[in-house]
């Protein structure tokens, strides 16, 4: 079973970039998606731990981790059926994070440059938008 703290999009991002304030209902919803996508992609707590340092270093995540995240984003409504980000949902997620306006703008600008997510590895540019190093390059 995957750790509650780790593999939900908001918390994954926050572990690198900011603090998050989530309601109990939202945390429960994220846990359910976390479990569903973890099972579908055979992604376990140990996989998360192995990849966590890569996030901090802005390195590419394992394909298994990327497939988990693709499932998570689609299930959570952040990516539509054609693989494009739904920016209304992205804005909701960013609003739950303790980010200043400048950081939110950098992340959003970076995300708008990403292409459709059709395969797991298409998430690599998207995940880099949430690291300080990459998002500040815009």
UniProtKB/TrEMBL annotation:
GO MF annotation terms: odorant binding
Cross-referenced InterPro entries: PBP/GOBP (IPR006170), PBP_GOBP_sf (IPR036728)
DNA repair recorded as keyword: no
Highest taxon of source: Eukaryota
Annotated CDD domains: PBP_GOBP
Pfam family, any one: PBP_GOBP
Signal peptide: 1-18
Keyword vocabulary terms for this entry: Signal
Protein name: Uncharacterized protein
Organism expressing this protein natively: Henosepilachna vigintioctopunctata
